[in-house]
Amino acid sequence: MTVFTSAYFTMNEQEAIEYAKTRLDYFAPDAELECKEIGDGNLNYVFKLTDQKNNKSLIIKQAGPVARISDEFKLSPDRNRIEFEILELQNKLAQGFVPKVYNYDPIMNCTAMEDLSDHTIMRTALMQHEKFPLFSDHITTFMVNTLLLTSDVVMEHKEKKGLVQKFTNPELCEISEDLVFTEPFYHCPRNEVFEGTREFAQEEIWGDSKLQLETAKLKFEFMTNTQSLLHGDLHTGSIFIKKDSTKIIDPEFAFYGPAGYDVGNVIANLIFAYVNAKYTMAEGEARTDQMEYLENTIEDIVDLFKDKFLKAWDEKATEQAARYEGFKEYYLDTVLRDTAAVTGLELSRRIIGLASVKDVTSIEDPNSRAAAEKICLSAGKMFIMDRESFKTGADFVSALKDCEKR
Ligand code: SR1
Ligand code: MG
């Protein structure tokens, strides 16, 4: 029998069962536990434990010492603490939008949390061309509550600085600094570029020094602007969804950074779903419907985010200077500018960089995949270069439509 005392090791399925029985007070003594490792992310191990007898289930997420995607990334398993603590905080700030957490173990670097198997990973559902009409309302509430309410606009400044310290996340931030802001924009050996896109990347991205300069400015903004407590990796693989419920998972990249980082990630990943629909569905009404649904969702997210942000500001701002005329509009404009820039960075890095997205890589026909990738890269560049000019949801959608026509 495995003893869980003072030594950390990465568990297998059998050890996860023993861990649940001996270390957690969750299952009944007569539980008949089964376990499956279901993680398909880039970093961690996710064990789903089921007690058929009493109809109960649980997730145990464990951080390993290296990333699953590549052992080049040696990462402190302390990221599991960050994930647990931020889920506790987000449960207060945005109740109902994150899984409940039951236990954190600092020796085994694992967290026990609610099983959300009645939901589907949003990327998978969108690739099956499903629609979620409540998503834009849910995700904008989540983002406004977690981003604005953790900023200096609302929080007492010393308390906020305490959170900045608590959620300093150097190793995971370094992954984003490298994979999002740096590597995609030069001919980095770690990039993985689809053959049909290579020439475009060489000429339009790596050969564009003006674009490189803008990405340098954005990288330094990301590293130095402690504006809001971000989720930090808010793509559609970090969202569990069903028709009436949205749950945001995997906040291990959380840290204090520019608020637009989260919003931009959501928008870019809806654009990946859009090109997936465009190039994997047969021409016809269903395809038009799916693409229109995604356009409308992008537009609604930007516009609802703005409305809810301004309303929450009026209701919750505590900072005296935040009440001066014109400041909230100025501040929101900077968030929209960063949203556009990050939309562009995420669109570029998932096409050129190491960590790709299935929405695009699953497009089987090579010409269609290259066409989809060029839309993402052209739009990405436009969002970065013209980032000051995106003020409404319609602005985001019309940039995408312009790039489709090229
Ligand atoms: C080495 S981790 C690669 C990517 O997976 C995560 O989900 C983040 O998006 C990261 O950039
Ligand atoms: Mg993740």
Automatic annotation (TrEMBL):
EC number: 2.7.1.100
Cross-referenced NCBIfam families: MTRK
Organism: Cytobacillus oceanisediminis
Gene3D superfamilies listed in its UniProt record: 3.90.1200.10, Phosphorylase Kinase, domain 1 (3.30.200.20)
This protein's UniProt keywords: ATP-binding, Kinase, Nucleotide-binding, Transferase
Complex and partners: Homodimer.
Alphabetical list of Pfam families matching this protein: APH
Enzyme class (EC, first level): transferase
GO BP of this protein: methionine biosynthetic process
Protein family per UniProt: Belongs to the methylthioribose kinase family.
Protein's name according to its UniProt entry: S-methyl-5-thioribose kinase
Residues of the Aminoglycoside phosphotransferase domain: 224-269
A molecular function (GO) term: ATP binding
Superkingdom field: Bacteria
